[in-house]
UniProtKB/TrEMBL annotation:
Species this protein is from: Cudoniella acicularis
Compartmental location: Golgi apparatus, trans-Golgi network membrane
Entry's EC annotation: 3.4.16.-
Stated family: Belongs to the peptidase S10 family.
Reaction(s) this enzyme catalyzes, per UniProt: Preferential release of a C-terminal arginine or lysine residue
GO cellular component, one term: trans-Golgi network
Function text: Protease with a carboxypeptidase B-like function involved in the C-terminal processing of the lysine and arginine residues from protein precursors. Promotes cell fusion and is involved in the programmed cell death.
Name assigned to this protein: Carboxypeptidase
Pfam family membership, one: Peptidase_S10
UniProt keyword annotations, A-Z: Apoptosis, Carboxypeptidase, Glycoprotein, Golgi apparatus, Hydrolase, Membrane, Protease, Signal, Transmembrane, Transmembrane helix
Any one GO biological process: apoptotic process
Amino acid sequence: MHAGHIEITPEHNGNMFFWHFQNRHIANKQRTVIWLNGGPGCSSEDGALMEVGPYRVVDGSNKGPKLEYNPGSWDEFANIMFVDNPVGTGFSFVDTDSYVHDLPEMADQFVKFLEKWFALFPEYEHDDLYIAGESYAGQHIPYISKAILDRNKAGAKHPWQLKGMLIGNGWISPNEQYKAYLSFAYEKGLVVRDSDMAKRLESQQAVCMKALSENGGKDHVDLNQCEQILQDILRETSTKGSDGKTHCVNMYDVRLTDTYPSCGMNWPPDLENVTPYLRRTDVGEALHIDPGKRTGWTECNGAVGGAFRAKNSKPSIQILPDLIKEVPTVLFSGAEDLICNHIGTEELISNMEWNGGKGFEVSPGTWAPRRQWEFEGESAGFYQEARNLTYILFSNSSHMVPFDYARRTRDMLDRFMQVDIASIGGVPTDSRIDGEKGLETSVGGHPNSTVAQETEHAKVEAAKWSAYYKSGEIVLVIVIIAAAAWGYYIWRDRRKRAGYKGVLGGEPQMELGGARERSTMGLESFRHKRSNRDVEAADFDESELDELHVQPPNEMDRERYSVGSASDDDEGQGEKHGNGHANRK
């Protein structure tokens, strides 16, 4: 594990924070995944400690927050790095008058970060590279990917092997996604069609549509007139609770509620543990947090989001089609998210033209089928694929899909990266698309995973005792046969000696006793040899299993640094950005 700051803009004291975890196991090739959360201005430590990282922070009762292994962590077959992007976000920092304002500027700084990071860790520079994230990262990821491709085409000495983009509940195309707010509210029964509430909301939507159609409105990443639709839905659907507080829908998971006007900013519940954990002095020291970041960690920095107006940036939907020509792409959605909901994502795909076709139309009038996905016997959603783009809907999931279903997202990742564990062993995950299994992948069942380790240990112990029992049974049978044979021999010997006695007049008793003593010693020796032999066989079987079963580093080995920050944050988290927009975290 590696963590710390890399200086990006020394003239403005700009430093970007990263937290890197090495893969637990190499499958058929080396891979690195970079994870980004959104906002803009929301920390990727959300992803590290509440979604796809190797640990979750749980309540340790009187001892405070503690780490617990995440069985769906994305570091099983890929290195994973979480970056607080742009500067000023999370543990990253910069002079307060030097926040990033536009997407190309953000992408240029990120490429500079990667160049310096790979200079520090050159062993990872030739890995297959994947960029993943969620929400407003739907703007960041395409712009960063384009900057990487442009760098490669410009003749970089060490071109980076960009192999894929994964965007979850991404903010990509305002034109379709703003319209989807009200459509989703209707679908989920939050708003009743033709009601007075619906008429008020439709009136605001008309204002939004006009703004989008005038003065290059579609070329803006966000518009205040359209952001107001979401705010109006949250306000109109709020109710007074028995506790005297006003409650509203959680915009990240409409199955839940929150106090108004937070409406989801207090979610997910793990934040109660993550925030104090990352603000601990010992954790900050362990993560090499630069003393320059004196305000500590905050999930979403309103000042960064307020400055990032993207006035001179076009929405990523305008560069995405050309990117998909070169870079395989996954868009995935949690079905219960409002702020970047699946209806908007499906609409933007339907209207997008790429690789010689429009939407998921594979031939005139024929669309790529929605293939049903089952994970370990349960319906998980569906896959839809065409021309280098895959769309996945996760059933019963929120804005932060990995928070709900980390193991299912790991399965998605492994399928996308074409991880094949057939050559390294492990128990394949039962994941089927239209009833068909793909490459053998493993989620929390790989031979070096914690659960698998315990399972294999139990199997080894069972095999060992089974070997002991079998060896005992064999010895018992041999003893019985040997005793019977010896008894028969003695009986014949006695008869002979009886005859000898009659002839010679001697007593055979001492000779018989000696023979019995030798027979007992012989059987004991034989039993000892058989027992040793069987024990050696059991040990050999166990050692074979040990060779296949690569032990994962224990928590102390994995955490060369005990895993947060010294002081309280004075920048403020806030329910909204400085520009009045909700956080797309």
